C-alpha cells in the first residue's frame, strides 16, 4: 500500500468560477446587443430549511451572472393542480428559459407528474423523460446539473476518464444513474453499486474513480478505497459534532485522504459546480430557443 502525503483537493469553487466567467462574458455580449437575457424560474414548495438555502443560492447566482430570476415560494399545502397551472404558465412565459422544481416535494404531490409537466426545452434540471432519453442515447441535451458538474470537475483537473474503472455508489435518477451514463459516454467502465450490492466495499475498492451519492455521512472509509483512487463526494449531510452543526460528505475525508490521489471536499466540492451547471443549462436553453 502506498500512502500519499497529500491528495490533490479538487476545488469545486475554482471550477465553478471558470464556468461562471464564461457565462458572464456571454451575458455581457447579449446586453451590449440590447438583447433579452436568459431567465430562470425556481419553484419552491414548503419551508424545508435546506431547500430554502439552495434556492437562495441559486437566486444569488442568477443575479451575480446577470440572468433574470424568478423565485416562486408556494405553501406546503398547495394543491397539485395549482402547481401544474403555475408550471403551464411558466412554459409559455417568454421571459423564462429554464424551470427548476426544488426537490424534495411534499408527500401529497406526485413528483413525476410535476417534473413531466415542464416543457423539455426549459427543463434545466434535465429530469424530464425526453431529456433523460436523449442522454441515454448519447444525444446533446439538457443534462442533470450534478452529474454534469462531476464530469466538469474531472475534465478541469485533466483527469483521464477513458479506460478507467468507475464505481458510482447510488442509483437515483438525480445523480447516480445519469452520472453513470455520462461516465460511460466518456469511455469509462462503469459499475453502479447501491444498498443491495453484495460486498459493496470490495466493489468500491476496484474503482479508479469512485463517486458517492448516497447521503450517508462519513460512510466511506479507507477500507473502501483503492490506493491512488480519485474520489468525487456528492453527498451533503448535516451532522452535529461537539455541539456544532457542520456539513460533511458521504466520505470520511480525514480517514481516506492519505490514501487517495485526489478528492473533492465537502463543502466546496461538487456543490458550487452544480449551481454553475444550472446557470450554464439556462444559458444553453436560452440559446436553443433563440435559434428557432
- Report the major sheet: 6 strands, parallel
In terms of per-residue confidence, which ranges show pLDDT below 50 for 5 or more consecutive residues?
none
The total number of structural domains is: 2
Q: In angstroms, what separates the terminal alpha carbons?
A: 57 Å
Mean pLDDT: 95
H/E element string? EHEHEHEHHHEHEHEEEEHEH
**What strand order characterises the main sheet?**
1-11-8-7-5-6
By DSSP, the count of extended strands is 11
Assembly context of the chains: single chain
* CATH level-two architecture of the largest domain: 3-Layer(aba) Sandwich
Strand content: 15-25%
Specify the structural class. alpha/beta
Shape: globular
CATH class of the largest domain, anyone? Alpha Beta
Amino acid at each position: 500500500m502506498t500512502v500519499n502525503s497529500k491528495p490533490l483537493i479538487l476545488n469545486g469553487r475554482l471550477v465553478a468560477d471558470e464556468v461562471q466567467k464564461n457565462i458572464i462574458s456571454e451575458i455581457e455580449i447579449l446586453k451590449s446587443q440590447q438583447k433579452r437575457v436568459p431567465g430562470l424560474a425556481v419553484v419552491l414548495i414548503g419551508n424545508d430549511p435546506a431547500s430554502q438555502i439552495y434556492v437562495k443560492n441559486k437566486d444569488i447566482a442568477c443575479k451575480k451572472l446577470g440572468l433574470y430570476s424568478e423565485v416562486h415560494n408556494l405553501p406546503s399545502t398547495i394543491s397539485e393542480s395549482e402547481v401544474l397551472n403555475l408550471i403551464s404558465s411558466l412554459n409559455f412565459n417568454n421571459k423564462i428559459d429554464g424551470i427548476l422544481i426544488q426537490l424534495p416535494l411534499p408527500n401529497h404531490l406526485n413528483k413525476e407528474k410535476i417534473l413531466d409537466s415542464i416543457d423539455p426545452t426549459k427543463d434545466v434540471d434535465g429530469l424530464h423523460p425526453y431529456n433523460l432519453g436523449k442522454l441515454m442515447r448519447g444525444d446533446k441535451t439538457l443534462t442533470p446539473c450534478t452529474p454534469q458538474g462531476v464530469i466538469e470537475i474531472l475534465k478541469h483537473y485533466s483527469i483521464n476518464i477513458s479506460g478507467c474503472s468507475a464505481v458510482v455508489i447510488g442509483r437515483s435518477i438525480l445523480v447516480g444513474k445519469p452520472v453513470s451514463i455520462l461516465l460511460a459516454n466518456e469511455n469509462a467502465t462503469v459499475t453502479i453499486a447501491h444498498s443491495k450490492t453484495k460486498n459493496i466495499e470490495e466493489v468500491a475498492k476496484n474503482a479508479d474513480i469512485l463517486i458517492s451519492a448516497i447521503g450517508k455521512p462519513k460512510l466511506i472509509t479507507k477500507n473502501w478505497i483503492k490506493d491512488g483512487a480519485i474520489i468525487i463526494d456528492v453527498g451533503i449531510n448535516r451532522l452535529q459534532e461537539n455541539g456544532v452543526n457542520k456539513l460533511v460528505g458521504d466520505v470520511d475525508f480525514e480517514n481516506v485522504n492519505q490514501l487517495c490521489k485526489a478528492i473533492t471536499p465537502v463543502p466546496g466540492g461538487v456543490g458550487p459546480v452544480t449551481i454553475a451547471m444550472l446557470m450554464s443549462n439556462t444559458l444553453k436553453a436560452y440559446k436553443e430557443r433563440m435559434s428557432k
